[in-house]
Fold:
Amino acid sequence: MADAAIQPKTYYRVAAALMGLLALTMLADALPLGALHFPVAMGIVSAKMLLVVLFFMHVKTGSRLVRVFAGAGLFWVLILFALTLADYLARGNWPPPPLGP
Amino acid sequence: MPTLAPPAPEDRSAADRAATAEVPPRPPSGAVLAEQFDDLDQQREADTLGMWVFLATEVLLFSTLILGFVVYRFLYPEAWHVGTEHTKFWIGSANTAVLLTSSLVMALAVHAAKEARWKAVTWLLVGTAALGALFLGLKGLEYYLDLHEGFWPGAGFDVGGPLRQQVELFVVFYYCMTGLHALHMTIGIGVVLTMAILAHRGTMRGHMHVEMTGLYWHLVDIVWLFLYPLLYLAGG
Structure:
């Protein structure tokens, strides 16, 4: 079986790493990072996602086709975000008028 | 009423071939080969691919919500700051830890299912569902506190002073995102408990059902991993 390679010991290590990253997230939240808060938080959560996808969801040991399918889902999301945010962030009338009466 | 057409000659010969084919040895997990597949590996690959296609649609469903949230975060940063200050940091953090633990337990359940240790599978799945229920309980407690503090969109909403209407938009996103996620958690708990019952009765046909349930559970976990910094942290 393709993913027989992942053993419980690995799962425990991955879970410990995930908890460490959660602690890191909470620590970063308390630090005065200012505008860096958002990119730092998104960077940490991306690392968490990769750990879960690669190990818990067996993509690391999965077939190439499964990897392509999983990667395609992520790639389409990246297109969705990149094009939409490129539009909003590149507009001339930024920031827009506030909502309200 | 249309009448049933007689089976085509190819079908009959296929059936004959299936009837005379050698029965492959059953793997320890007791997987049953469906007739449309050549072997268990092919069946397993098809199951996994189908699940990933479904998961990709789920990813896009949540991504559109998150994208809208992020766009408005750039539009109204002050209001979003008021919103993330209001959400309960410790409940959100505890729930993240609960879900990460549940994913570990789920991964162990899938591992046990591959080795056909059905008693262990049953209890690990029950543990996964229990952690899921704990998550929903904490989320419910948070909703309860939110409602008591008037953190609910609609007439009379008054959080954020002059930024009131922008904060209200944050609150709408908050309930849509956490609500949709909680719905997925509820479905997940139902599926996990169903698998636990099948494993307990010994009527599970192979480990793939548990593995597919695991993929869904992990994806719902990942969705929360993203919702947590967006809704609870200062940088969200």
